[in-house]
């Protein structure tokens, strides 16, 4: 089930706040709920509050799917986590639109009674900023809980592999003919080919391309010690194992967000991520959204990301960005990237983060009024002064002085990363 | 930063009031003064509607026509703009808070966030008789920044460059606005188009434009 519209009337800093979360006209998916949403805004504008609202709303819907009339009190407990006044509309997997509202005159639980329970296909995974703790459905789970699923698959594989090796070694140790020996080897190779090691899948297709940049990799070699069975092991590229308690925060961040998705392979879920950029270097930040939204990890899910990172924001189409800003009275509004008089059509958008340089994203989306520290401006003035002197020096300065001036100019230009013949 | 002629006093009621206070002015309180808009609008008239320091457009010409002053007071509707009344020399604000000679209208962020109470040097006070932007300043059309004229002595250059910083003339967002504005007009000039209309439509950054145009003319010759 995907969120299409939200209206919050009096919830924290949200007063008469409306969000259209559908693709604009002119888009191939016009009118459908957005596949992914990126919430940006100054601290305090309510990015996490929005995620928590969705998390609590889904918590309520999950309970509503299973409650019976005599359990109204239990359901009301979940409704109490929600704002007193809100409206929301969703599109479920059967493409049925579901409307929910809670106002002073309409009760949320009453509105649920008119809905078919089978239409409420609500599923959620919430990744908070605490990397080792996630909320799955309405339950809090640690990374270990998710890992347990993958570990079981790996364990099964490893046990089977040991079994196959034992069978092979019996053939080798026995007085077998060359023909039998070759047959045994072939069978083992064929089994390996048909039953890929889950660790190889995780390493090759998900983690190692990123971990390698941390000088790390997933440890794949089996040494047949007890500890090797059923745990993911990380080692340096030089082969030295790094125990879990020594993982860097960036490594933990990556693994504890990717592997739960790998374990659950969510389908038709609402996936919420608070600050997915945490502890990740810029190059990884530019890739993390593609990794987390990869079809290898989930199917037909709706993603919400709350972020402070311009690099994360650059991965989204402009209509997928929800930029929150303060009104003078402290309430917040959504900054629109199109002229409201012209209408919400893809051609009317004047900002597209995918096409902007990082510095332009900072100034145009994140409202940074500087493109550098002011110390740079003073140095640019020095550079312009040197250029002016050089231009005026033609034929007026002794050659050695001009060479010195040119050398000063070039040294400063390098320091400022000045691009010749370009407007810097 | 253009030269500003503040001799045309349209808000004569304010001026009489200012002079009547003698050596010690009433405390400066911008929001609660009956002459505040008289001062602001008169200055905008003298400054041709732009920020005194950065030359960013603040107010449309239609709001500061001389016909809107009656009996020494500004009588037209108050325009909406993001500007502030700046005390050029902050040290005069306490005792001479309403001094005409110390006032300029500037872009609000320049006043509130940048210049604030920084110490000033009169070498770049745009209404002084000796102030001549073409003699004191140069414009680098590649980086779109102002610098002191490199023909001046080192000490004057340093004083001017320090003041360029104090007044926020080269702040990156100012620079970006100036660059965008000038590039559009220069492109029209270079392609032989009619640039006057574009320059008039968005009336700002006169000094930088004038300096760029002179360079273009020199190159043509």
Automatic annotation (TrEMBL), chain A:
Q: Which SUPFAM superfamilies match?
A: P-loop containing nucleoside triphosphate hydrolases
Q: Which InterPro entries match?
A: ATPase_AAA_core, Bact_Antivir_Def_Nuclease, P-loop_NTPase
Task: Give one Pfam family.
Answer: AAA_21
**Superkingdom of origin:** Bacteria
Coiled coil residues, start to end: none
According to the UniProt entry, its GO molecular function terms are: ATP binding; ATP hydrolysis activity
Kindly list the organism's lineage: Bacteria, Pseudomonadati, Bacteroidota, Cytophagia, Cytophagales
Species of the source: Runella aurantiaca
Please state what the protein is called: ATP-binding protein
List residues of the ATPase AAA-type core domain.
38-312
Tell me which UniProt keywords the record has, alphabetically: ATP-binding, Nucleotide-binding
Automatic annotation (TrEMBL), chain B:
The organism's place on the tree of life at top rank: Bacteria
Can you say what this protein is called?
Answer: Uncharacterized protein
């Amino acid at each position: 089930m995907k969120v299409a519209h939200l209206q919050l009337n009096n919830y924290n800093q949200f007063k008469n706040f409306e969000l259209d979360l559908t693709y604009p006209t002119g888009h191939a998916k016009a009118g459908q709920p957005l596949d992914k949403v990126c919430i940006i805004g100054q601290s305090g504008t309510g990015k996490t509050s929005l995620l928590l609202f969705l998390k609590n709303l889904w918590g309520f819907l999950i309970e509503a799917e299973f409650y019976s009339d005599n359990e109204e009190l239990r359901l009301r407990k979940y409704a109490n986590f929600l704002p007193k006044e809100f409206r929301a509309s969703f599109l479920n997997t059967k493409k049925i639109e579901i409307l929910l509202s809670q106002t002073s005159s309409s009760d949320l639980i009453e509105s649920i009674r008119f809905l078919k329970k089978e239409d409420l296909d609500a599923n959620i995974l919430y990744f908070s900023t605490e990397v080792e703790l996630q909320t799955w459905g309405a339950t809090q789970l640690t990374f270990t809980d998710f890992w347990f699923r993958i570990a079981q698959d790996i364990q099964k594989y490893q046990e089977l592999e040991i079994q196959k090796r034992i069978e092979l070694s019996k053939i080798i140790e026995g007085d077998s003919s060359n023909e039998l020996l070759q047959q045994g080897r072939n069978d083992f190779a064929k089994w390996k080919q048909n039953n890929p090691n889950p660790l190889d899948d995780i390493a090759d297709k998900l983690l190692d391309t990123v971990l390698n940049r941390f000088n790390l990799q997933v440890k794949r070699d089996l040494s047949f010690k007890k500890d090797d069975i059923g745990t993911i092991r990380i080692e340096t590229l030089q082969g030295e194992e790094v125990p879990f308690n020594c993982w860097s925060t960036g490594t933990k961040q990556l693994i504890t967000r990717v592997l739960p998705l790998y374990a659950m392979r969510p389908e038709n879920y609402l996936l919420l991520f608070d600050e997915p950029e945490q502890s990740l270097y810029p190059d990884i930040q530019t890739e993390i959204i593609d990794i987390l939204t990869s079809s290898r990890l989930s199917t037909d899910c709706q993603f919400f990301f709350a972020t402070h990172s311009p690099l994360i924001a650059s991965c989204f189409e402009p209509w997928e960005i929800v930029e929150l800003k303060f009104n003078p009275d402290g309430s917040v509004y959504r900054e629109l990237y199109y002229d409201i008089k012209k209408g919400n059509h893809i051609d009317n958008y004047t900002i597209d983060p995918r096409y902007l340089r990082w510095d332009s994203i900072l100034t145009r989306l994140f409202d940074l009024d500087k493109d550098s520290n002011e110390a740079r401006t003073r140095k640019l003035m020095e550079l312009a002064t040197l250029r002016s002197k050089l231009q005026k020096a033609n034929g007026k300065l002794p050659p050695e002085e001009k060479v010195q001036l040119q050398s000063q100019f070039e040294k400063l230009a390098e320091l400022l990363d000045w691009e010749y013949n370009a407007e810097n | 930063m253009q030269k500003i002629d503040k001799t045309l006093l349209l808000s004569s009621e304010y001026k009489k009031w200012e002079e009547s206070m003698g050596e010690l002015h009433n405390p400066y309180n911008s929001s609660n003064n009956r002459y505040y808009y008289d001062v602001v609008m008169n200055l905008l008239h003298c400054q041709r509607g732009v920020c005194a320091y950065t030359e960013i457009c603040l107010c449309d010409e239609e709001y500061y026509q001389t016909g809107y002053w009656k009996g020494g007071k500004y009588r037209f509707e108050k325009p909406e703009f993001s500007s502030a009344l700046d005390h050029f020399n902050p040290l005069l604000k306490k005792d001479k808070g309403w001094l005409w000679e110390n006032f300029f209208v500037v872009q609000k962020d320049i006043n509130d966030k940048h210049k604030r109470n920084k110490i000033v040097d009169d070498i770049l006070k745009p209404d002084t008789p000796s102030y001549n932007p073409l003699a004191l300043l140069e414009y680098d059309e590649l980086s779109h920044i102002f610098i002191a004229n490199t023909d001046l002595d080192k000490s004057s250059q340093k004083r001017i460059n320090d003041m360029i910083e104090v007044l926020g003339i080269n702040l990156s967002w100012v620079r970006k606005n100036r660059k965008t504005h000038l590039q559009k007009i220069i492109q029209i000039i270079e392609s032989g188009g009619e640039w006057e209309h574009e320059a008039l439509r968005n009336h700002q950054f006169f000094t930088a434009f004038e300096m760029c145009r002179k360079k273009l003319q020199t190159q043509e010759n």
